[in-house]
Amino acid sequence: MERSAAEYLVYLRENVSDLKQEAKDMGLTEEEIKFCIDKALSLDSNQNELINSPKNIARKCFHYFRVLLKIWILACLLLIAAICGGLFLIETHKPSADFVSRTLQPYGYAIFRSLRLSTLPVHRWMNITEYYNAECIVDNPYYVEEFNYECKVCENFKNLKVMNATDFTEERFKAFAHAFKPVHLKGVQDRNVDYQDLRNTYKLNREVLLESLYKVTSLDVHIRSLGDIFESDLGEQVNTSSSIRIDWFSQSVTASVVLRGLFPRPKVVPEKHEIPLEKHVFILGPNSPTFELPLTMHPIQLYIQGSGQRRLLARPHKNCRDSCNTLLAFMEPGDALMLQNDVWDGWVATGDGPSIGYLISIGI
Fold first, then answer.
1. How far is 128 from 117, CA to CA, in rounded Å?
2. In a domain, 70, yes or no
3. What is the number of domains present in the chain?
4. Can you give the CATH number for the domain in which 320 is found?
5. Which of 34, 52, 70 is the C-terminal boundary of a domain?
6. Which residues pair with 310 in a beta bridge?
7. Of the ranges 44-58, 201-215, 315-329, which one carries the lowest mean pLDDT score?
8. I want to staple 288 with a disulfide (CB 3.0 to 4.6 A). Which of 44, 236, 245, 255 is the partner?
9. Do 348 and 231 share a structural domain?
10. 16, 32, 52: which is the final residue of a domain?
11. Is 75 helix (H, G, I), strand (E, B) or coil?
């Protein structure tokens, strides 16, 4: 029996004499009083009536509400504790951070798109743009990246330093990275990679690459996917057309493994430094327009010349163009240009023939 109903019956039994007297005062006869008492003390009928009474139902609803509220609060506390613990582990344990980054990489676009759409109503009451810590998912022509350095970090650089990859030790890598000085490296890539090499690799790994997370941008409106690039042989167009400027942006583990067969891990990058999954392959026709290198996950960028020749420009950020020089590199197949995009903007200038470029970023 419900606890509230049992308490009510005990109260009736303990106070039956007083209830009889009150009934007589109200003018009830002995038979009427006996009938009322028998009915009130009847366990079968009284239990159902008390349990189904509005007051008892309200008590039960309130009881269940309190239980659900306690469970909900406990679940929220456990979720908050798990999130805080996970964040602490990610911040303090680099292998865990790398694992989470690799796992969430394919879902990054969907997660951030949903997050930004869900926070749009907040802009009615406050500006939360300052809390964004990554570039926009969609290119924003009005977005200007904040420049956090003084121009003196680049004002003394007059020419690019040119070095052989074999002489670029880990100590020199750290020195150039922390000095924000671009460096032109010779002999980084041992083999040439042209359009036909890319197409053959695609044909051998078609299903893997088509199922991977990627994005293709091109000056040609008819080229919007890997199939558009490689299913038909575009070799003649790549060799002759200035309208061929294709950026294949890869973001998956499987595609990264495939691309590593063409572009092995550069020998100038120390082993303990991370190379993210994000990689750009540029397919450029002769005299294709000059373009700026895209932003990458890490500020240190390494552009590798797979084939052909190109001029690469390291331009200081807009704030420092009056006090710092633009540096020029004449890229031959196998060369690489390393720069810090916190200070420098990389630009790929036009060239007489076709070329293949490869862009990665390096964590420090």
1. 13
2. no
3. 2
4. 2.60.120.650
5. 52
6. 331
7. 44-58
8. 245
9. yes
10. 52
11. helix
Which candidate, 341, 193, 350, places its Cα nearest to that of 259?
A: 193
pLDDT of residue 151: 82
Q: What tokens appear for 37 in the block?
A: 């008492």
Place of tokens 């009915």: 39
Question: Residue 213 is encoded by which pair of tokens?
Answer: 């997370």
d(CA 181, CA 224): 36
Question: What is the four-CA torsion angle of 331, 200, 278, 215, rounded to 10 degrees?
Answer: 110
pLDDT level of residue 20 (50, 70, 90 thresholds): confident
Close Cβ partners of 108 (under 8 Å, ≥ 6 residues apart)? 251
Least confident of 26-35, 77-86, 125-134, 302-311: 125-134
Identify the weakest region by mean pLDDT among 22-31, 230-239, 348-357: 22-31
Residue 140 token pair: 């924003």
Does residue 32 fall inside a structural domain? Answer: yes
Q: What integer pLDDT is reported at residue 101 of this predicted model?
A: 78
Residue 2 has pLDDT above 50, yes or no: no
Ramachandran angles phi, psi of 171, nearest 5°: -65, -40
| Nearest of 275, 347, 266 to residue 306 by alpha carbon | 266
* Sign of the torsion angle spanned by Cα atoms 258, 296, 84, 273: positive
Backbone angles phi, psi at 29, to 5 degrees: -80, 170
**Parent domain of 30:** 3-52
Contact 59, 4 (CB under 8 A): yes
CA 23 – CA 238 distance, rounded (Å): 107
159 and 48, same domain (yes or no): no
| pLDDT at position 1 | 44
Q: What is the pLDDT of residues 159-199, one digit of tens each?
A: 899 999 999 999 999 999 888 899 999 999 999 999 999 99
**CA–CA separation, 225 vs 238, rounded Å?**
16
* 177 shares a domain with 43: no
- DSSP SS3 for 229: helix
Q: Which residue do the tokens 């044909």 mark?
A: 203
